[in-house]
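Students often ask why inverse folding is considered easier than folding. One informal answer: many sequences map to the same fold, so there is more than one right answer. In these notes we will look at a single instance of the problem. The structure comes first.
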């Protein structure tokens, strides 16, 4: 479990194509200072397992499912990435509960800079739109952010100087793809309320107020 508070701006140092998978070598002296084989590290919001580490770098294998659902497949040597270690039990929850399980990708469609912050507009896949609400939380490339405006096919976020300086969101441009993870609590609520992923009531469930017919 993560919080979406990026600890370090890392860098891809090697990419090995394994056919239906890829192996990445990433530099991150801070997140690897106490890392060991089998630990988890979030890379642009994607929870990856450390295969080996040393000299401030770590290796992680990325399977086909992850490559399909995220933007990690577009990473090349020299790409900058957001890195975060899992939260420690008993620590402060600075952002919101983040699993590192990417729900889909969006595309930055616009940036509006101002003197002290920047508004960024991101496209929103139709199947994720219902989980995104104004003033709610969303994770963009592993960064926990508050939604400013939630549209049917987009949302906007406001980035402070710290976020612009310390994460990849400061260098992403219009047209760049980003990983999205919506608030998992919204998905659990939907499931518990008996709605399927299309937002419709599951078969066999009656609408509120509909009476059972007794034969």
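Output (designed amino acids):
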């Amino acid at each position: 479990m993560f919080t979406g508070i990026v600890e370090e701006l890392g860098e891809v140092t090697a990419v090995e194509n394994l056919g239906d998978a890829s192996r990445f070598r990433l530099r991150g002296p801070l997140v690897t200072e106490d890392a060991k084989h089998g630990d988890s590290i979030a890379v642009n919001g994607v929870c990856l397992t450390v295969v080996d580490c040393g000299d401030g770098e770590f290796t992680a294998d990325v399977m086909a499912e992850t490559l399909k659902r995220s933007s990690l497949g577009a990473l090349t040597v020299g790409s900058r990435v957001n890195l975060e270690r899992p939260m420690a039990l008993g620590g402060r929850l600075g952002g919101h509960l983040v699993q590192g399980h990417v729900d889909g990708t969006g595309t930055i469609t616009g940036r509006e800079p101002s003197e002290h912050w920047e508004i960024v507009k991101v496209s929103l896949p139709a199947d994720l739109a219902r989980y995104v609400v104004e003033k709610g939380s969303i994770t963009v490339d592993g960064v926990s952010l508050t939604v400013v405006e939630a549209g049917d096919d987009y949302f906007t976020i406001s980035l402070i100087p710290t976020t612009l300086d310390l994460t990849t969101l400061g260098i992403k441009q219009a047209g760049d793809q980003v990983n999205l993870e919506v608030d998992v609590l919204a998905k659990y609520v939907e499931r518990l309320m008996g709605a399927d992923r299309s937002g419709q009531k599951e078969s066999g469930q009656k609408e509120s107020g509909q009476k059972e017919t007794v034969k």
